[in-house]
Design brief:
By secondary structure, the protein is of the alpha+beta class. It has one domain. The protein has 3 helices and 3 strands; from the N terminus they run E-H-H-E-E-H. It has a 3-stranded mixed beta sheet, with no helix packed on it. Strand 2 and strand 3 form a beta hairpin.
């Protein structure tokens, strides 16, 4: 999400990490750094200019980001995916 009272859901980031993960071993997972870096990059850099850099933003078509071993792959959110609800974040 972007910052402030006008916050919008900019993207949904798929969590590729296993559900049964220990805090001490999490950083060793091969996808951990890519996921962490993508989220931090958004929070630190891209969220501030999101509205200006995305004039064609459609809240009904929030992209789903799948983190791989190299660059993130952005695919459209599934049809019927509710991007206006906090349920979208809790997945």
């Amino acid at each position: 999400m972007t910052n402030g009272p006008g916050a919008v859901l900019a993207e949904v980031v798929e969590n590729p990490l296993p559900k049964d993960r220990g805090r001490t071993d999490l950083h060793r997972h091969p996808l951990y750094c890519g996921l962490r870096n993508h989220m931090l990059d958004f929070l630190v850099s891209r969220s501030k200019n999101f509205a200006a850099e995305t004039p064609d933003y459609d809240p009904a078509r929030v992209p789903l980001v799948r983190i791989g071993r190299t660059e993130p792959i952005i695919v459209p959110a599934p049809k019927g995916f509710d991007t206006t609800s906090t349920q979208a974040i809790a997945r």
